[in-house]
From TrEMBL:
Membrane topology: Multi-pass membrane protein
Signal peptide stretch: 1-29
Name recorded for this polypeptide: TonB-dependent receptor
Localization: Cell outer membrane
Pfam families registered for this protein in UniProt: Plug, TonB_dep_Rec_b-barrel
Domain of life where this protein originates: Bacteria
GO cellular component: cell outer membrane
Domain spans labelled TonB-dependent receptor-like beta-barrel: 368-808
InterPro entries, per the entry: Beta-barrel_TonB (IPR000531), Beta-barrel_TonB_sf (IPR036942), Plug_dom (IPR012910), Plug_dom_sf (IPR037066), TonB-dep_rcpt-like (IPR039426), TonB_rcpt_bac (IPR010104)
Alphabetized UniProt keyword annotations: Cell outer membrane, Membrane, Receptor, Signal, TonB box, Transmembrane, Transmembrane beta strand, Transport
Organism: Azotobacter vinelandii (strain DJ / ATCC BAA-1303)
Family: Belongs to the TonB-dependent receptor family.
Occurrences of domain TonB-dependent receptor plug (ranges): 56-161
Broad class of the protein's primary localization: membrane
């Protein structure tokens, strides 16, 4: 068989940039050049969608993709918000910024994230999910969500694997660079924020080669100041005699988030049969949050409109979290006749450093008379004016905290494939293996300050009036004075902090967990006419170890738990072309998703008849997945598709109370995590995109797209009745699973102007399960619909002006307890507006 050559990567982004420049030229110049006219047809939104659909069409898996120019055209702050536009994808938001990605309605911890082919570990101490808001969108060349895994892929995702690819010099021809500046305005706080980004790439000639060595770099920096207004109960409702409310609090957030991202990539292609690369990425995310809270606790639970005595309190939280991700990937590919050898070494390290004032609480000296509230969904306090004054509040307690989490992933991967003919049909056998070593540790230090009068501080020194910082600007009503972080720190700084070190809380949260995975696979591909078959088997062996400390009635105990398990994971993929533009896909795959690190944490606290603890012996979630779908491509930027999927799930993890059973028979509380019996999830994913370029002007610039995913799940949980000892069951939805997720996009573009209106919808979902017989206190996140708008105008062939508006409908965040009428949390953000300028040169 003749030796093949490595296929050159198409310069899709370069084509879009070139088209943008030509589109801005005078009309007469375009008419004189037929080639230029062709480039104009692929400019902007349609070009990026078309490039992404080509990747989707050729993929062996069911996947959805967005390209770098597509990311830049959406009103998105980060990678997570860019991903939410894809079919079947939604996001979890924090302070109205997208953070974690959900796929097909499944929770973020059931997905995995890779950067340039290597797994990204999670900065946060208890999660596997990677908060993708730490990755600025400017560092990404392409973003794909793979929903069916082939045997040569890691099997550690149930919803999908989010694959991030960074910039390469071989994505462009010759010198390319782009510079952008942006200013945003937060309507809620009135704050203005800057952002700068840029990218550059160039190819060089080494040795006898021509343009065979490439260097690409990208940089992004932003510092966003914004805030939100909140009222919440935490689900603190008494439903036995009510419903009646036990307490509520008002919260005002002032937030600053600084993001810095940098990527430097090298590619070397010495000949037509080999290529080598080094991918590096660094991202730093600093989140500074000041939260003032004012709350009440009613002496007796109250109904709306009722009144009674209440205690009041004020609280300040002022902390900074810094998350970093470092990723280095060295790899290459070599053609050896009919054989293709690929190798890759990856190293990724994520960390989170958090420190600051965890809380400072001032309590009212006397109870407030005739206190009450109106509205169960958005409680409004009816209380005396003294509650909104600093007078009458005194210092109660404070907590200073420092926490460092690191999560390190090292892996080595080798793949070997051989192309050959089988009975006259093109075939390939591929096999390989991967060694993965992961180490996650957490170190916490907590200082608890209380009973300060024993340290010689007078009542006047502990009065709240000496620690205020002016009136809080609270958009949901009256709030009164806020607390000053600097003044409280000065108070605590005058004390010997060693006297207040909380050894119990510090040690019980410390842990070191190791997870080693050895994997091997064998797969075979066969093309029989229009049918492509991929069949194979993957084997994964996991060795897990968790070390930490527990405390039993004041005494510390060391913990060292180990667990080993293996999985055989067969897979079958079929793709059949019904015609030039239509194909059918089917897949049967298997997944294994390990529990979160918070669920596996070894620490425990046992105090009398109450206990709380992690469960290092949890079994991993196992799932058999079935996918069937059809895709029909409608020309440039056009597709209509429908996919059915079903997942048969065992061993999903959930929180439970084991009190009354086994060794916990005499306990009133024993809160931990357990494996559920089983769960089923099935759904339908629909997508449509089309550019109406055959219509007469100006309608030929119209671009419409939409997708909608329906899912339904059935899961069963169980626990022992503490009185009878009998096992109790309850059917629930899978936590974090939305039944409906959808996007709608209406766009229009011509040679200079590009407009896009985007709508993103996510239905309500179960956030947290309460006791097995306490459905009323299950927490649900309400449905949300976000509307965004973007406009871009080419001032010159190389200069573009942009305007973006986020959350035009001022959508809020609402969590309810059991029924939509009962508040657990309500939060408002307001719209954000951005204006930017981008220079492109190539």
């Amino acid at each position: 068989m003749q030796q093949r050559r490595l296929a050159a990567r198409p310069g899709r982004f370069r084509l879009s940039a070139l088209a943008l420049a030509i589109a801005a030229a005078p009309v007469g110049a375009v008419e004189e050049n037929v080639v230029a006219l062709e480039h104009i047809e692929v400019v902007g939104q349609a070009a990026s969608i078309d490039a992404a659909l080509n990747d989707q069409r050729d993929s062996d898996s069911v996947q959805s993709t967005v390209h770098a120019d597509g990311v830049a055209q959406l009103p998105d702050e980060n990678v997570a918000e860019a991903a939410q536009r894809l079919p079947g994808v939604s996001i979890e938001r924090d302070q109205n910024e997208g953070r974690f990605v959900s796929v097909r309605g499944l929770g973020p911890d059931l997905n995995s994230v890779t950067i340039n082919g290597t797994l990204v570990p999670a900065p946060e101490s208890g999660r596997r999910a990677v908060a993708l808001d730490v990755l600025p969108a400017e560092l990404v060349q392409s973003l794909s969500v793979v929903k069916t895994l082939t045997p040569d892929m890691d099997a550690n995702s149930l919803g999908g694997t989010i694959e991030v690819e960074s910039l390469s010099a071989f994505d462009h021809d010759g010198l390319f660079y782009t510079l952008s500046s942006e200013a945003s305005h937060d309507e809620n706080t009135g704050e203005n924020s800057p952002k700068f980004s840029g990218a550059i790439s160039q190819r060089f000639s080494l040795g006898d080669g021509i343009d065979n060595f490439g260097v690409a770099a990208a940089y992004s920096w932003s510092d966003r100041d914004f805030g939100s207004d909140n009222v919440e109960t935490g689900g603190d409702w008494d439903f036995e005699d009510g419903p009646r409310l036990e307490g509520a609090e008002l919260r005002d957030y002032e937030i600053s988030r600084e993001r810095t991202g940098f990527g430097l990539n090298f590619d070397y292609r010495p000949d037509d049969y080999s290529s080598y690369y080094l991918r590096t990425l660094y991202s730093r995310y600093a989140d500074s949050e000041t939260r003032n809270a004012a709350g009440v606790e009613f002496a007796d639970p109250l109904a709306p409109g009722g009144s009674g005595e209440a205690e009041g309190w004020r609280e300040l939280k002022d902390r900074t979290e810094i998350q970093t991700i470092r990723s280095y990937v060295l790899g290459g590919e070599r053609l050896l006749g009919p054989w293709t050898l690929k190798g890759q070494v990856g190293y990724s390290r994520s960390s989170e450093n958090s420190r600051g004032l965890g809380s400072a609480v001032f309590e009212s000296d006397e109870e407030f008379e005739d206190a009450g509230f109106t509205s169960r969904a958005k409680p409004h306090l009816n209380i005396g004016s003294g509650f909104f004054s600093a007078d009458g509040f005194s210092f109660d307690e404070a907590e200073m905290a420092r926490e460092r989490t690191t999560d390190t992933e090292r892996n080595l991967k080798l793949d070997l494939a051989r192309d050959y003919e089988l009975s006259g049909h093109a075939a390939q056998v591929k096999f390989g293996g991967k060694l993965s070593r992961r180490d996650k540790d957490n170190d916490t230090d907590i200082w608890t300050y209380e009973d300060l009068d024993e340290y010689g501080l007078s009542d006047a020194q502990l009065a709240m009036s000496g620690y205020t910082s002016g009136t809080v600007h609270y958009g949901l009503g009256n709030f009164g004075p806020g607390l000053s972080a600097s003044r409280i720190r000065a108070l605590l700084g005058g004390l010997d902090r060693d006297d207040f070190y909380d050894e119990e809380e510090s040690r019980v949260n410390d842990y070191d967990m190791k997870e080693d995975i050895d994997a091997a696979y064998l797969m075979h591909s066969l093309d029989i006419g229009d049918l492509r078959i991929i069949a194979g088997m993957r084997y994964e062996r996991t060795r897990f170890e968790a070390r930490g400390s527990g405390i039993r009635d004041g005494d510390f105990e060391s913990i060292d738990e180990r667990n080993t398990y293996d999985h055989w994971l067969p897979g079958l993929h079929l793709r059949y072309r019904l015609g030039e533009n239509t194909q059918v896909r089917a897949a049967i795959t298997n997944s294994v998703v390990r529990p979160t690190f918070g669920q596996l944490a070894p620490g425990f606290v046992i105090d009398g008849d109450e206990a709380s603890f992690g469960n290092p012996n949890l079994s991993p979630l196992e799932s058999r997945n079935f996918d069937l779908g059809i895709e029909h491509y409608l020309g440039r930027a056009g597709v209509v598709s429908a996919f059915l999927f079903y997942k048969d799930i065992d061993n999903f993890a959930y929180n439970t109370d084991l009190a009354g059973s086994g060794v916990w028979a005499d306990f009133s509380e024993a809160n931990t995590y357990a494996n559920g019996d089983r769960a089923d999830l099935w759904g339908l994913e629909l997508a449509w995109s089309q550019k109406f370029d055959w219509l007469p002007a100006p309608w030929n610039g119209l671009l419409v797209g939409g997708n909608l995913t329906f899912t339904h799940s059935e899961a069963s949980i169980s626990s022992r009745d503490p009185d009878s000892g009998r096992k109790r069951h309850r059917d629930i939805d899978l936590p974090n699973q939305s039944k409906r997720v959808g996007n709608l996009m209406l766009g229009w573009e011509d040679d200079r102007l590009s407009l896009r209106l985007s709508l993103n919808y996510k239905s309500d979902y179960l956030q947290e399960v309460a006791g097995i017989d306490d459905e009323d206190h299950d927490l649900y996140v309400d449905d949300q619909t976000f509307v965004d708008f973007s406009a871009r105008y080419s001032l010159t062939p190389n200069l573009q002006l942009s305007f973006e508006a986020q959350n035009l409908t001022d959508e809020h965040y609402y969590v309810y307890s059991g029924h939509r009428s009962f508040n657990a949390q309500y939060e408002e953000y307001g719209p954000t507006y951005k204006v930017g300028l981008t220079l492109v040169n190539f």
